Amino acid sequence: MIREDLLKFEGGYLRPLKIEDVHTGYISGLNDPEVNRYLDGVNRVTQTRESVTDFIKHNNQSTNALLFGIWQEGAANHCGTLRLHGIENYHNTAHIGICLFDKSAWEKKLGSKAIITVTRWAFDTLGLRWVEAGAYLENIASQKTFLAAGYDWIYDVPGKYIFEGNPATVKVFVARNTR
pTM here? Predict the structure, then answer.
């Protein structure tokens, strides 16, 4: 579902990720245990240029997913990704996930700004009415980021998912289009 949208926010912008955007910092960031601790699947295998390229290709060919890169203002390379996936056109819903793989971008509010920007865009452009995110109970930073982006915590899913080898609780957050 390739698009050409450039979505600006204070201090940066998002745009659909392209294969030519792959850089060594992206790959090494995904392999950093501190970065990938909460990323399902990413932390189970070492990421390579080929696996990252395949992920971008898969998302760009998908009819129900969009993968955005997150750029800080003035930066040559992206510092993170934001994925809108499971886009469902009957119910007008989707899931959202974010990863800031460049730790120098942490604690700058880029995550919440990117989430706000893509969520508004999804409501206005795709006509979505519900965007949902999940975060492991232990992932306090992600929970704070979604709350700061205006998402509401709506329920917990206890024991369904495995985190670090054990059944874990996932907190579910949602943004609703009230327009």
Answer: 0.95
